[in-house]
Specification:
By secondary structure, the chain is α/β, with parallel strands linked by helices. The protein has four domains: 160 residues, MoaB/Mog-like domain (Molybdenum Cofactor Biosythetic Enzyme, Chain A, 3-Layer(aba) Sandwich), CATH 3.40.980.10; 44 residues, Molybdopterin biosynthesis moea protein, domain 2 (Alpha-Beta Complex); 84 residues, Molybdopterin biosynthesis moea protein, domain 3 (Molybdopterin biosynthesis moeA protein, domain 3, Beta Complex); 68 residues, MoeA, C-terminal, domain IV (Beta-clip, Beta Barrel). 19% of the residues lie in helices and 31% in strands. It has a six-stranded mixed sheet with strand order 7-4-6-5-9-8, with no helix packed on it. The chain has a six-stranded mixed sheet with strand order 16-13-17-21-20-18, sandwiched between helices. Strands 22-24-23-25-26 form a five-stranded mixed β-barrel. The longest helix has 19 residues.
Length: 398
């Protein structure tokens, strides 16, 4: 039985980076940059006023209180270059281009206007209140690195730079197959039936990544139905098939044998972890990677967080995610010989230090503690004074 580290290493060798594609900025939210973006222009592109006021023609030294200037006109945002010949000042709006030969902006509330002249009411510093060209980013500078996930801040920068399209990693094509004759959608349940929670969870979790969800099948505990669902996913061009249930050693755990019969190469079956030990990985030659997760809901959550998510990062060309080390407030008894994934909460103690608490009453079938946690806590063999803490949801930053 492989350790978690060894199983993950096997998977990441199979997580081949996906191709890049050109996408418009309007639909780039959540995508991963395949190529770095260099700034096609400087921001700001020209010297401009940081506030409403009066621009003063260039000179030496500070501007003393009582200084008077002849106002040549109004410089509004969007106006082009104007020299204002014969004038020492011009009224200027926030964001307006600084006229040629002017070097200072004095706020309107510190000026007194009298007809065509304006008087400064207090001492002012030369060169103040100007946003200089390139003060944010200069032409040719690195704007965003490859591997950056496009969020609202990145959209703002790219839009300001006039970038209309980016080279993004192709969205991974994923199919979900939930096995179990007992599974049903919402509505009245038959005797012995349960609502399918794994399918909706995986669909929601994959949507947060930006995966292209090709299909979500719920199949009974028969090999034929499962085989047809796998064939559908392969024909649709899936990069990854995620299954739940039927991977253990019981009479109805048919997934391993069904995949082998269909020609898939088993990468591993069972990992020294808890929950989720029966986890299976396989590969179709020239086709999709398959991750078979156990059916218990928290085993599915662990499978997604610590196996599916790293595979998706690998397909996006991102380096593996790393946890932070956090002090554990109280002990937590676990079975030795396994890597344990526990739900927990990371909070500040009374002295402001970050500490971790393990969620009590958690088990592979209990979903409520999952909704009350804010972190995964992991440890080999035993939970000591310090544990690895991971965000509850995958972090898609580089």
């Amino acid at each position: 039985m492989l350790t978690y580290a060894d199983a993950l290493a096997v998977l990441l060798k199979e997580a081949h980076p996906l191709d890049a594609e050109r996408v418009g900025l309007s639909v780039a939210m959540g995508r991963i940059l395949a190529q770095p973006v260099s700034s096609p222009l400087s921001l700001p592109s020209f010297d401009n006023s940081a506030m409403d006021g009066y621009a003063i023609r260039g000179g030496e030294g500070h501007i003393p209180s009582g200084s008077m200037y002849m106002v040549g006109g109004m410089q509004a945002a969007g106006d082009g270059t104007t020299a204002y010949p014969g004038a020492d000042a011009c009224e200027i709006a926030t964001g307006a281009r600084l006229p040629d030969g002017f070097d200072t902006v004095i706020p309107v509330e510190r000026c007194e206007r009298d007809g065509e002249r304006v008087r400064v009411v207090q001492d002012e510093k030369r060169g103040q209140n100007i946003r200089r060209a390139g003060g944010d980013i200069r032409h040719g500078d690195a704007a965003l690195p490859a591997g950056r996930r496009i969020d609202a801040a990145a959209v703002m920068l790219l839009a300001a730079l006039g970038v209309e399209a980016i080279d993004a990693v192709r969205r991974p094509r994923v199919a979900i197959i939930n096995t179990g004759s007992e599974l049903h959608a919402s509505g009245p349940l038959p005797e012995g039936g349960i609502h399918d929670s794994n399918g909706p969870f995986l669909a929601a979790a994959l949507a947060s990544w930006g995966a292209d969800l090709l299909m979500r099948h719920r199949v009974p505990d028969t090999g034929d139905a499962f085989g047809k669902a796998v064939d559908d996913a392969r024909r649709a061009g899936a990069d990854l098939i995620v299954t739940t249930g039927a991977v253990s050693a019981g009479r109805f755990d048919f997934v391993p044998s069904a995949l082998t019969a269909m020609g898939a190469r088993e990468l591993f079956h069972k990992v020294a972890i808890r929950p989720g030990k029966p986890l299976l990985a396989a590969r179709f030659e020239g086709g999709p990677l398959v991750l078979g997760l156990p059916g218990n809901p928290i085993a599915v959550a662990v499978g997604h967080r610590f196996f599916v998510a790293p595979v998706l990062r690998g397909m996006a060309g991102l380096a593996p995610e790393t946890p932070r080390r956090v002090r554990l407030v109280e002990g937590y008894d676990v079975r030795p010989g396994l890597q344990h994934f526990a739900l927990g909460r990371v909070e500040a103690d009374s002295e402001g230090r970050e500490v971790a608490h393990v969620q009590r009453n958690q088990a592979a079938y209990r979903i409520l503690p999952f909704t009350q946690a804010n972190a995964w806590l992991t440890a080999d063999d035993a939970f000591g004074e310090v544990v690895d803490a991971w965000p509850l949801d995958p972090v898609w930053a580089p």
